[in-house]
């Protein structure tokens, strides 16, 4: 008997340890119970069923850098039941309603160089109890969006974004319940307010991804000059729209030595910033057509073969580019690009140039 | 009778802070109810990047009237609008739906019996507070 008891103890300890590890491997969100006013509801929420394909809100990186699921505490059904019951008391004389949660998820994405968006997507289906069966009486898909300041240049993370996910979950549930109440009570004004709600699925509610790309560009061939550039590109992906990326480049170009010597110069170097309008269009997933017009502005430093000092010249021009960018991996990975370029500028020794440029970078 | 002097220890500042915080919460909690917000709110001023400024001349008569039947009337930049509204207590926002079917979200930053501070959740007004006052 003592041996059996010892074995049982060991099994119990193992099970508890496994359970503890499982709990530790997820982040939980505790819903606050802030009541909201529901005008004399003739129903109560009898049961909330978690009918989601993915049983988590989102996946986040924990302190160890591992991806772990974020879930509601203690589970979705209990958390929502407690939250809703605070505002709509259960009573036997009222109509029992069963709610299936088809979707409840959290998304986050950068939308431009200064802002990020946080979103809670929810899709609820309401059922009336008819004996032992359920009859669908209403459904709603809704997104709770909130935009936050988060300047890209500082790569700053606005802590308020993750700290307020819980509030948006509550707001999303309240919104759906109020829409359902309006539908049930058939109050003309209230019903009119919610008649724009979406009862479709929410597959098209995914936020577009923001790409951060650091790339090195090298001129493969050009008529007069050679050089390189280092740059940052940030853009919000879109399947349909023309994408306007946020670009910041530093470029260093030199006129080819033999051409400079032909023109009587020891060297001609230029340091250029290139503000402009750039645009991408997704051709197929991972491949983007890229076009741009730009205004190269900088300084040209030239030294004649017989001169003792450098001569400086304010450099300005206009350029255009056409090419292709290949972003093989959506999350993190290597990015390739190839571009034709044309340029007109007020250089000391040449005014027109065309060439081909190759780029390699990483997206994160 | 001997008057006993109360010694103000280190706990007193915390008590004051707690009281102020509690009052603040109570004000906001009271404010976020349909009854508290169903008023005629007149546009008073704006706050942007820490600087208050008066509305433009065309906005002098601007107001937002939230009715108990969940309809609203408003004047914005001199133009009249109407439609329906709803309050999301947990999200701390108002949703206005205009007769034109356009929907706008107004985030409630602060609410007392006499003042309502809103931000319109749309570019380019997202970071500008609109301060409304009421005499009701």
How would you characterize the overall build of this protein?
The complex is a heterodimer of chains A (364) and B (136). Chain A is 20% helix and 50% strand. Chain A has 364 residues and is α+β, with helices and mostly antiparallel strands. Chain A has 2 domains: 25-205; 210-363, Porin. An 8-stranded antiparallel beta barrel of chain A has the order 8-9-10-11-14-15-16-17. Chain A has a 4-stranded mixed β-sheet with strand order 2-5-6-7. Chain A has a 3-stranded mixed β-sheet with strand order 1-4-3, with no helix packed on it. In chain A, strand 16 and strand 17 form a beta hairpin. The longest helix of chain A is centred in the N-terminal third of the chain and has 23 residues, at 2-24. By secondary structure, chain B is an alpha+beta fold. Chain B has a single domain (33-134), classed as Lipocalin, CATH 2.40.128. Mean pLDDT of chain B is 82; it is low at 1-30. The chains are: A alpha+beta (364), B alpha+beta (136). The A-B interface holds A 34-37, 144, 146-147, 149, 167-168, 170-175, 178, 187, 189-190, 192-194, 196 and B 33-34, 69-71, 84-86, 88-93, 95, 97, 101, 103, 121, 126-127.
């Amino acid at each position: 008997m003592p041996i059996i008891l010892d074995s049982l103890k060991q099994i119990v300890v193992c099970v508890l340890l496994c359970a503890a590890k499982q709990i530790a491997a997820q982040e939980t969100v505790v819903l606050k119970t802030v009541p909201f006013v529901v005008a004399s509801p003739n129903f109560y929420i009898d049961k909330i069923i978690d009918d989601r394909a993915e049983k988590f809100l989102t996946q986040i990186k924990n302190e160890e850098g591992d991806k772990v699921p974020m879930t509601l505490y203690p589970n979705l059904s209990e958390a929502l039941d407690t939250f809703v019951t605070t505002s709509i008391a259960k009573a036997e004389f009222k109509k029992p309603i069963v709610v299936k949660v088809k979707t409840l998820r959290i998304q986050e994405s950068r939308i431009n160089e200064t802002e990020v968006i946080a979103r809670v997507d929810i899709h609820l289906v309401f059922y009336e109890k008819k004996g032992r069966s359920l009859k669908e009486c209403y459904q709603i898909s809704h997104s709770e969006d909130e935009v936050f300041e988060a300047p890209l240049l500082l790569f700053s993370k606005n802590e308020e974004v993750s700290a307020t996910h819980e509030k948006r979950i509550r707001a999303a549930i309240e919104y759906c319940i109020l829409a359902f109440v309006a539908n049930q009570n058939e109050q003309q004004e209230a019903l009119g307010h919610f008649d724009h709600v979406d009862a479709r699925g929410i597959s098209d509610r995914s936020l577009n991804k923001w790409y951060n790309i650091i790339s090195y560009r090298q001129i493969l061939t050009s008529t007069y000059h050679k050089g390189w550039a280092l740059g940052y590109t940030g853009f919000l992906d879109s399947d349909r729209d023309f994408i306007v990326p946020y670009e910041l480049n530093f470029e260093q170009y030199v006129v080819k030595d033999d051409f400079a010597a032909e023109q009587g110069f020891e060297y001609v170097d230029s340091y250029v910033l290139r503000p402009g309008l750039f645009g991408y269009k997704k051709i197929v997933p991972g491949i983007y057509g890229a076009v741009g017009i730009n205004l190269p502005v900088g300084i040209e430093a030239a030294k004649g073969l017989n001169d003792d000092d450098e001569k400086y010249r304010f450099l300005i021009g206009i350029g255009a580019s056409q090419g292709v960018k290949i972003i093989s991996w959506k999350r993190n990975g290597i990015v390739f690009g190839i571009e034709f370029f044309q340029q007109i500028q007020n250089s000391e020794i040449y005014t027109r140039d065309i060439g081909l440029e190759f780029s390699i970078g990483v997206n994160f | 009778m001997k008057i006993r002097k109360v010694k103000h220890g280190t706990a007193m500042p915390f008590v004051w802070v707690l009281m102020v915080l509690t009052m603040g919460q109570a004000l906001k909690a009271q404010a976020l109810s349909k009854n508290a917000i169903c008023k005629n709110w007149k546009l008073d001023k704006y706050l942007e990047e820490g600087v208050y400024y008066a509305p433009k001349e065309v906005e002098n008569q601007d107001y937002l009237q939230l009715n108990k039947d969940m309809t609203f009337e408003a004047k914005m930049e001199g133009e009249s609008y109407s439609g329906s509204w709803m309050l999301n207590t947990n999200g701390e926002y108002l949703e206005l739906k205009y007769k034109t079917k356009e929907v706008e979200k107004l985030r409630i930053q602060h609410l007392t019996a006499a003042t309502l501070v809103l931000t319109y959740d749309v570019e380019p007004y997202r970071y500008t507070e609109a301060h409304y006052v009421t005499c009701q």
